[in-house]
Write a structure and sequence with these properties.
By secondary structure, this protein is an all-alpha fold. The protein contains 21 helices and two strands. The longest helix is centred in the C-terminal third of the chain and has 34 residues.
Length: 488
């Protein structure tokens, strides 16, 4: 008797082949038509290739392939593309920010802050308030570091609590708090616009050079209260709809579960420098154009501020050693895949709006049946509703980048403030909680099959998604328009 074993197809090479075809070969089969030039066809094929690649292949290789392919569009050479991409002010700032945030993680500053929050007397005897604060820690830590640092730190604390206070896997409270951590991470990820959103902000400025810089203070004033409202909604759903028994947490003592490190000079120095970064980025939002401090900060730019932030812990020494060991921190904490993604976003942005390509006119014509012929408010509602739905099934950076092109095409005809519209987009593209494909962190919580009941979890994600989209369309759009109107 013989047996036949089927050879598994290596999907890695299948996906690579599709990306290669889209980026390097497809444009030979498509002829330009209407407003779209041959250069525009070339660029759109590359665009299709990296969107497919980001969805099925990861970030790094498709981004590098895009950089090479852009050099053969007829617009630039590969060397010109490389200089424009890696020499970009925002790309350099993000690279330096990776290092600085890595230093904060290495020193344990984020964990110390988490312990400080969780040991407040206000939380004693209030188990629901304590539960919310645990997930709020994820919100704060994600805001200043990244999604996975916040997620794993808070999950680690939850596992200690579950075991110590005898919460069994798959029970409603365990399901809700594991998801609640992801809620905190999801909402905290975009409250500081000069982190991951900086790539999209820079991209939009490249697409529409006349819009000027975003008002960071207006953005944070609008977005932070809105995310806190979404956060509260989730815990109201937990408490009043699912109603898990959490009476055993009545007298919880977090200090016995998580140890706080002793703070020294290095911790206070790095915290002070991080505060200076935030202040330096916010100050230009409310100073007049002629103010000397604003002129100085504008001359420094993002990269200048980043270099100064790194220089301070490099120069200042603690016990005979510099506070920042650059080689060690850079080797451990730079996310190269994310950096290359930002590079390609910054490269493609001005190309998509280049009149030589005709892509802007092509997008306006294609989207006119959906978005055209409406008032500004109706346009915003339709736009945000589509983004919120799509971001729950596709990569949010892809959605954000795609829909910024629609903003460029429609904001002037409708008389909409472009940064108000971009802020609406930034919030909408992060309300991703419905399915495991919504984001990496949502996929992770569904994958925790030794603790979480995935089927049960859909009840919580659906109710949360429904509450968020209704709140956003009825309250959020008007709130963001109001705040940006006050700052204009």
């Amino acid at each position: 008797m013989t047996t036949h074993t089927k050879r598994k197809i290596d999907l890695w090479w299948v996906h690579f082949g599709i990306i290669f075809f889209l980026m390097f070969l497809l444009h030979f089969l498509i002829k330009p038509s209407g407003v779209l030039s041959q250069e525009g066809v070339n660029v759109l094929c590359i665009f299709a290739g990296f969107i497919y690649g980001w969805g099925f292949f990861g970030l790094l290789i498709p981004s590098i392939m895009s950089i090479i392919a852009l050099g053969f569009t007829g617009l630039y050479t590969v060397s010109e593309i490389a200089v424009q991409g890696f020499g970009n002010d925002i790309v350099i700032f993000v690279l330096l920010l990776f290092i600085f945030i890595g230093l904060m993680q290495e020193l344990g500053i984020t964990q110390n802050f988490a312990v400080w929050l969780l040991t407040r007397k206000l939380l004693q005897g209030r188990p629901w308030l304590f539960s919310a604060m645990m997930c709020f820690v994820a919100y704060i830590i994600c805001a200043v570091t990244n999604n996975f640092v916040a997620m794993f730190m808070v999950w680690g604390m939850w596992f200690s609590i579950f075991k110590t206070y005898d919460f069994k896997p798959y029970t409603p409270y365990v399901n809700l708090m594991m998801l609640g951590t992801i809620i905190g991470v999801t909402l905290g990820a975009f409250i500081l616009p000069f982190k991951t959103l900086l790539a999209l902000i820079g991209a939009f400025m490249a697409m529409a050079p006349d819009v000027g810089p975003i008002n960071y203070l207006a953005y944070m004033t609008a977005v932070i209260p809105l995310t806190l409202l979404f956060f509260v909604e989730y815990f109201l759903i937990c408490k009043f709809i699912f109603k898990p028994d959490i009476s055993r947490l009545q007298n919880i003592d977090v200090s016995k579960l998580v140890k706080k490190q002793k703070m020294d000079f290095r911790h206070y120095l790095v915290l002070g420098v991080f505060a200076l970064i935030i202040v330096a980025l916010l100050i230009p939002s409310f100073l007049p154009e002629t103010n000397s401090l604003k002129i100085l900060l504008n001359n420094l730019g993002y990269s200048g501020i980043g270099f100064l932030a790194l220089l301070i812990p490099l120069v200042i020494r603690y016990k005979g050693e510099p506070v920042l060991n650059l080689g060690k921190i850079a080797n451990k904490y730079i996310a190269w895949d994310a950096l290359f993604m930002i590079v390609i976003i910054m490269l493609l942005s001005p190309i998509l709006s280049n009149e030589q390509t005709g892509i802007g006119g092509f997008i306006a014509q294609t989207c006119a049946p959906i978005f055209g012929g409406h008032s500004a408010l109706v346009f915003m509602i339709i736009f945000c509703a589509i983004v919120v739905v799509l971001t729950n099934f596709f990569n949010n950076m892809i959605i954000g980048f795609l829909f910024m092109n629609i903003i460029v095409a429609f904001y002037e005809p409708l008389g909409i403030d472009p940064w108000t519209m971009c802020s609406l987009l930034f919030v909408a593209m992060h309300l991703a909680i419905l399915t495991p494909s919504s984001s990496g962190q949502v996929g992770m919580v569904f994958a925790m099959s030794d603790w979480v009941d995935g089927k049960w979890l859909y009840k919580a994600t659906f109710l949360t998604f429904f509450a968020w989209i209704v709140t956003y369309l009825l309250i959020g759009i008007g709130w963001i328009r109001l705040i940006f109107g006050l700052f204009s």
